[in-house]
């Protein structure tokens, strides 16, 4: 089939090329008669019924180009004295109607240019003659040819053909008539066989029909008033008199695209009325509205909004018409109505970003629409639209719209997955806007909407781990937006979240609790900055207990996480409790930390890391009294000695020294003990493993750190240096990773010593490495 | 006898139909007695084949020649006819009260003297039924004596004049019938005659007959449940350079129409009654519409008659023949079935 098409086209093009060649040759020899004969033969190719619309178009364009040559020759002939009326008649002697009319239009175009006869007379005559082509495809093309050729010959306002040749009314009349006829032909193409193929073919041809509308819009004489009174009513007549959805859709769209926005503003009521009450039910009104609203919104944004708002009440017009459509109980599909609502909401949000009342009204209509439907009507697509509907206002309007009554009403039409989507969208919107959550009522609504993320609802659907994690993180991020200058309220809001989080299971709490806990940390610091608790419910004790409670829940399943939270908790307490009022509480936490570390953490590598964190956290604490602290630090040090590998043990113990000597602790003895222990472990191992020299170098460096704080025995240090220097060469024999590490560390150490010596720091003078 | 026998082969026209390729053989230098020969051996000739006049006998003494010169030919309108024998010819037109005047030129052609029985000019109007000479007859015959019996010694020129001769019928050159006017000059001699003929045309213009009524030709036709149309020609009478205009209304279209055409037919009716012969000739086929219209469509009809070589309609000319023009509107469907309706139109010559 396709191949045949190619062949048919190829053959036809060949004939056209051949005959065009002869035609031009005859024109060069000024043999008009022959030229007409050849052009006629060329044009006869357009009689074909074999070609698809696309291929016919290709052939048409080829002929079209050749006909321009002939047209120019006619002009020359006129200058040479040929009588146009004679030529106009003589081409009508052609036997076949297709070549005859193409020639007639071509001569007619030249005839008009002579001004010997009014443009209108010729154009109307041509239009009359063209009726002879009743074949849809060929008819459309010859009328398209007519449009192309008469393009600049219309008696438009200000054109050279105005006056004797007619006026703008005639120009409009001519094109409207052509449009009407073309539309009929176009509709006739539909036929009954092979519906979808026909529709495709028809859509391939739509530009030929649209050309009429373009012509109309290009007429100088079509002012707003003319458009309103003479053009639009006629176009609407054409649109509504056909019962063809494709045609109605296209012509509406075309009209909206072709004419200026001001015109649409002034005729909006009319346009909308047609759309909502006079089109076929299968016409995609939604798209027409979307286009129209899109254009008007652009127009509004590019122009003075004032005129947009005052002159015509666009919102109300759309609203009325859309509502009318909703209530008309028509056959328009629910899905399309919903689409329309979405588009309208979008439009309203763009044009009236501040007007939440409008938004609520649209929501109301939408609810009304949804109420009417059966459950089965809510297809996947409809649900998507409702999701959009709920999420869209959030992007531009404040969270307050969440308090609109209609929101939950719409939400209930959605199955779980969609509710989840809405919830996600809401969270995203809140996060993207970086909106502060400061209102209790909004918080309540918000929590309602995002509860698909917070609790396991009846129709809950499992999702992949990573997706779950993502959504829970969204929730976590939302919590961080809670804020209020009144910390008591801020606390209340947080408590609302926490209360809800408690209902979610541990899998969610893994994400939500830490977020809530950190939000509480922040709150506690804010309270502290404000000068301490102002109200009953923001007493530290209450908050601390709550946090502890929350962490304990985590602890059951996620020990490591709980451990880290405890550490952060301690740091938080440390900020507000320099007076050690919560000494026992804090000590308890510390003990808890050690217990978790000891009992719950198995992975040795993780242990190294965590212990490091524990010790560095402890080193910063001042909220525990010295005695208790000493116990805690001691426990931590013991844990270091229990690490799996010797080097880890040595370095762990070494690091423990920091706990005893820092901003708050000055316990030199314990520091020295740490060194001793570390050295002891190191000495035990260096015999078997020269690489252990790395630990020694670290010990040496640690000496340097404490040099000016703690007194060490000189011999002890020299002993370390001795071992290093002795073992180093052996340790460096291999060229493996470890050796490299040692090399680097050693070089850095040497550099430090060198530099400190240069600065004549006393302690270093004895270090020779 | 042999010495006086002359054979002149005059122009042989090419005809498409070689079977009937005809040579007219004349015993004298005029076209008088015609004999038909089928010359099958010439049937492969396509081009115009002309044999120039040749005298086979009478070499020593040439026959006298006669020429007829009509006055004022340079200003007279020329009518063109497609004659079956002569091809396309152009003849001077006389109409209304026109006189026909001119000169007759007699040349001696080396003759010292000519003994004759009289020189006479005749104006003849003749209806010729081409395939049946018996039916042919003159409807007008006017004669004038230019010279009474006697002897002519030198070349001589005679004036002649037929004043306001009766122009009852128009000249017509059809397929089966001709109506021709001609002047004939005959020099009668004892041993035969010298003859010369000149054709001319008569055309009868008619007044624009307003009162005679331009009725529209309107007809509804159809086939039940299939097709119902109404066609209309705005006029029933047309002059020769007129335009046939009209329209076709489609009321019901349940067949798949491929196209619609208008055919103009010339109908020659020869004789009357049972022996009447009818010849239909299609003058032009003209496509009116491409494709299948829908109910409610109106398709215009516009046919320029000026491009068609036609005569006025004739009704019972001299009791011998009539010429009628018929418009045949044909609808062709996609199964190549034809639906047609014929309508006669009157054609007249505008004065």
TrEMBL record, chain A:
- Keywords, comma-separated and alphabetical: Protein transport, Transport
One Gene Ontology cellular component term attached to this UniProt record is: retromer, cargo-selective complex
Which Pfam families does its entry note?
Vps35
Q: Which domain of life is it from?
A: Eukaryota
GO BP annotations of the record are: intracellular protein transport; retrograde transport, endosome to Golgi
Please give the family membership noted in the entry. Belongs to the VPS35 family.
**Main function:** Plays a role in vesicular protein sorting.
Instruction: List the protein's name.
Output: Vacuolar protein sorting-associated protein 35
From TrEMBL, chain B:
Keyword flag Protein transport: yes
User: Where are the membrane-spanning stretches?
Assistant: none
Q: Return any one Pfam family short name.
A: Vps26
Cross-referenced InterPro entries:
Vps26-related
For this record, the Gene Ontology CC terms, alphabetical, are: retromer complex
Query: Biological process (GO) annotations?
Result: intracellular protein transport
Q: Which UniProt keywords apply?
A: Protein transport, Transport
Q: What's this protein's family per the entry? A: Belongs to the VPS26 family.
Q: Which PANTHER family does the entry link to? A: VACUOLAR PROTEIN SORTING 26 RELATED
Q: What is this protein called?
A: Vacuolar protein sorting-associated protein 26
Q: Which organism is it from?
A: Paramecium sonneborni
From the broadest rank down, the organism's phylogenetic lineage runs:
Eukaryota, Sar, Alveolata, Ciliophora, Intramacronucleata
